[in-house]
Amino acid sequence: MPSLSGPLDDPAADAGWQGSQPRKGFFTDTSVCIGCKACEVACKEWNGVPADFSAGLLGSSYDNTGSLGASTWRHVAFIEQPAKPAGNTVSLGMPSTVRPGEAMSPDTATDFRWLMSSDVCKHCTHAGCLDVCPTGSLFRTEFGTVVVQEDICNGCGYCVPACPFGVIDRRIGEQGQKNVGIAQKCTLCYDRLGAGKTPACAQACPTESIQFGDLDELRERAAGRLAALHEQGVDSARLYGESPDDGVGGAGAFFLLLDEPEVYGLPPDPVVPTRDLAQMWRHAAVAAVSLLAGAAAAFLGGRG
Questions:
Q1: Domain spanning 11-84+108-271: CATH 3.30.70.20
Q2: Who has the most CB within 10 Å: 59, 92, 169, 221?
Q3: Where are the domains positioned within the chain?
Q4: φ and ψ at 238, to 5 degrees?
């Protein structure tokens, strides 16, 4: 696995690609997302991902897919909250049985806002799923993204708990259906990238909430957008996943949020679980040597 001692500028080159392409990624600006779910549909159509929409709504929001998974590679979250939460508390957007505006007085019954965000695999610089895969099914592409090879995955599931974002999962369904039991997630439309095309979700987004391109350029664009929102008085706006110094070495898919990450169901300080793996093995080796030395000393002492 790559060293986590510092930022990794070119994960594709680190993976052995010669003459790799500029690293590609997504910048999702949630401030202009309208919740149309065009990205979800486009992703499913292009990648042949089976439909998993519920017969009705979840009951907690207007969302009908709930979360990312093996059959939902793009997920649009609908989070309803008071426009100005009282005090300094942070609304976590938790499910409620209270209808919108019901607990408010008539003059403030419409004083709420929608937070909408299209979530996706982060294509981490230091990807835990890739680190733990025993078959090589998960690999780093020449674009710096992380992809599952369906014909190599044995369905062991090691990658599932290794993702700090809860993105990757094994597909559930009846035997005979496509890729049942196989780990699945967003590929950033690897086949389209090879043909010089834009990923399906970004192509379908009508508001350009999902922006695709070279990761360095996207980070500059995101910084400019954040500065513009702050100038407009939107002090709650923040970037999430753009920093190469975070616990995953920076994400290949990052976001502009209008509230705390927890509100969107994102971990506030994600860390790749394999970060301390080398140190853990060193401790285990020292413990094993000490155990063997103690056993040898006891054996030799007993003989004397």
A1: yes
A2: 169
A3: 11-84+108-271, 275-304
A4: -155, 160
- Per-residue tokens: 92: 């976590």
CB 121 within 8 A of CB 160: no
d(CA 138, CA 162) in angstroms, rounded, equals 12
With beta carbons less than 8 A apart as the criterion, state whether 46 and 67 touch. Answer: no
Residue type, 209: S
Mean pLDDT of 259-271: 92
Reading the block at residue 118, the tokens are 């299209």
The helix (run of H) or strand (run of E) holding residue 284 is: helix 277-303
Burial (CB < 10 A; 0-12, 13-18, 19+), residue 91, is: middle
Q: How far is residue 62 from each of residues 57, 78, 83, 115, measured CA to CA in Å?
A: 6, 6, 18, 12
Rg of the chain's alpha carbons, rounded to an integer? 23
Highest mean pLDDT among 11-20, 90-99, 250-259 belongs to 250-259
Q: What is the mean pLDDT of residues 274-291?
A: 61
